Amino acid sequence: MILPIVAYGDPLLKKKAKDISKDYPKFDVLLENMFETMYNAYGVGLAAPQIGLPIRLFLVDTSPFSEDEDLSKEEQDALSGFKRVFINAKIVEEEGDEWAFNEGCLSIPDVREDVFRKPKITIEYLDENFESHKEVFDGLIARVIQHEYDHIEGVLFTDKLSSLKKRLIKGRLTNISKGKISVDYRMRFPDQKKRR
Prior knowledge:
CATH superfamily: Peptide deformylase
Shape: globular
Radius of gyration: 16 Å
Helix content: 25-40%
Number of strands: 9
């Protein structure tokens, strides 16, 4: 089932999410719905807060990036096969010199800005079978993970922009929060919730 994506301005997107346990109700259905929702919106990642759930869960599928002809064959291959579920994740280390990449977000449609992040991360997480992992990722995979991880920490990519950039996009962000935007996937705007 395709779920509505929570839009910028909803207070849930600014809250730190809570850990979950393996007895979380209908977990397999939730994962299926999240993947379906993400693919329907042409996303490469989706975090539970973006569908209205304040839990530490996100998923990533970087396959769409593998078609970028500016990348090496090795990078394309790594991106094409990368599909993961991250539960109760914790980034334990970020390394390297920060680099800029133009990011967007399904909760903030039609806004893209350069965000600086470190290129290499070490992350501890549970997979969809609640088995424990500690792995190192770098490049675009690390960046997508960092972006989704920020969601479970209550941080949006717009929070990482300079005050000047924030002022420049303020009007567009206000329009998103008021639902004054046209998107080709289901969204839930903060004002809609109040009217229910």
